[in-house]
User: What shape does this take?
Amino acid sequence: MTPSTSLFVLNALNLDRSCEPEPLLRQGLSLYFSDMDEAENAVSRYQEAYHFLYDSQDASMELYCLLLDEYELDCMYPKKLSTRVYSPQGLLKEQMKVCEDGSAYGESMIVTAFLEGDLVEAPVGELLRLGIVLQTPNKKDDDHYKILFYPDMEEDYIYAPLVFEPSRPVSKRISFALRQAWTAYKEEAASTF
Assistant: This one.
């Protein structure tokens, strides 16, 4: 058996819907692996193994997604090599190789790519927020989406693998407000050129 050159860290992001109007994301327990196959096996069995965390009738907590980060071993600082995002059922949703030292960005392997004007949700701190994509990642320069978030209409850059399709219905009022703000953003950007 050859020694592993990577450490795989599996984290659960849990959605606490008892907090309104915006649900909170809470990180669950972290699991550590030296082998990708073992980590992916844990992903596929996660809901079965930890069902007691989510099965209660009155539980407001639900599994939102699983994050599998790969780090280089024997490094003076934690150097992330890749991020994979899985659905609660263990299906791969997003995957991206990264290079955190800035020398070169890795090959992007995004499964679901969003376009400018798409409605999305993403974690901002502990909040799971609705927004609209203002700019997509430039695969040569970065790995972040620029998103305008509702209700404060503030812009933020979000790491691409953590941008998702909305998991709950988006009201017409919120959709209209975001699309109106996006149109204003495009007009302002066009007028500056």
